[in-house]
Amino acid sequence: MQENKSVTIDVDAILKNKFGERKIPGPIRYLIRRILHQDDFNEYFCKGDVGHEFVEGFIRYINVRIDVIGQENIPDQGRFTFVSNHPLGMLDAGFETAWLARRYNGNVAVPANDFMMSIKQVGAYLIPVNKVGAQERSLGEILNDAFRSDRQMLFFPAGSCSRQINGVITDTPWKKTFLTRSRETQRDIIPVWFSGQNSKRFYRIAKWCKRLGIKTNFAMYTLPDELFRSRGKRYKMVIGKPIPYTIFTPDKTDSQWVSYVRDQVYSLKQD
Predict the structure, then answer these.
(1) Which of 24, 49, 82, 101 could form a disulfide with 54 if both were Cys (CB 3.0 to 4.6 A apart)?
(2) 3-state secondary structure of 161
(3) Which residues have C-beta within 8 Å of that of residue 129, sequence separation ≥ 6?
(4) What stretch of H or E contains 168?
(5) Taken in order 96, 101, 107, 110, is the CA torsion positive or negative?
């Protein structure tokens, strides 16, 4: 098969989209390309797989094994919002997306950031969450349409991967979008817990950015490197029993119900 030389991850294009025409020095661009593993990703991207086969192949490529526990808890019929913790950033999101896409014939929707949106091989599953600019419809409308559709939704309510908080690796506060939209569209919620954690370097960068009041999420830019650091490791994905949308009654606030769902996710934790 002739090798495809096209660049799928283009750091220069991502930086231009993020920072406009502001000039970023060449050595900084080079360092970012190294941290984002542009060449490593593109070497694999040339293989030509798309969709869930693309993600599954990449997981084999980096020699990672993931055990799925609790599949029997998913009902045969219905529209669901799968809600998960987000310990790793890329590996957990990629695997959960691919696993659901295989199970549901690609009929899945996942909110995604700019970097994930740049991976066109899985673009059919993704909804942009932090793009701005000229769009025919607002992101809120796109998300509403996805929830009203027959697609299975996968949500990471923290919006970013886990941090070290009081010495414990755990998600940052969860947003309530998944809960309000699931209740409005009558979707039961299926809790999912994923194992693992990133390197100490990742948490140190996140901590110092917070201490110094730096708004740019520099830790996020190390996530591709964290992905390649997972080579040869083994993880678990645990699926819990559905939580009926009908239990989210006004006797508790939405924030309290979000805490309840979060507790259900973390109750699935296994050593």
Answers:
(1) 49
(2) coil
(3) 111, 112, 113, 139, 159
(4) strand 168-170
(5) positive
Are residues 127 and 38 located together in one domain of the fold?
no
- In the Cβ-directed half-sphere of 247, how many Cα atoms lie within 13 Å? 10
Q: Are 189 and 83 in contact (CB under 8 A)?
A: yes
Q: CA 111 from chain center: how many Å?
A: 8
Q: Which single residue is written with the structure tokens 């299975």? A: 152
Task: Give the count of domains, the chain.
Answer: 2
- pTM for this one? 0.85
Alpha carbons 55 and 119: distance in angstroms, whole number: 11
Transcribe 190-246 into DSSP letters.
Answer: EEEEE-----HHHHHHHHHHHHTT--S-GGGGGHHHHHHHTTT-EEEEEE---B-GG
Q: Is 47 exposed, middle or buried (0-12, 13-18, 19+ CB in 10 A)?
A: middle
Alpha-carbon distance 82 to 190, whole Å? Answer: 5
Question: What region does 63 belong to: left with phi over 0, alpha with psi -120 to 50, or beta?
Answer: left
Strands 163-165 and 168-170, bridge-based pairing:
antiparallel
**Cα-flanking dihedrals φ and ψ of residue 92, to 5°?**
-65, -45
* Pair (170, 234) in one structural domain: yes
Q: Which residues are paired to 63 by β-bridges?
A: none
Q: Is residue 158, in this structure, part of any structural domain at all?
A: yes
* Distance between CA atoms of residues 235 and 233, nearest Å: 7
Segment 167-191, tens digit of pLDDT = 999 999 999 999 999 999 999 999 9
CA distance 114 to 166: 29
Same domain, yes or no: 80 and 43? no
Is 161 part of any domain? yes
CB 147 within 8 A of CB 185: yes
- The radius of gyration of the chain from alpha carbons, rounded to an integer in Å, stands at 19
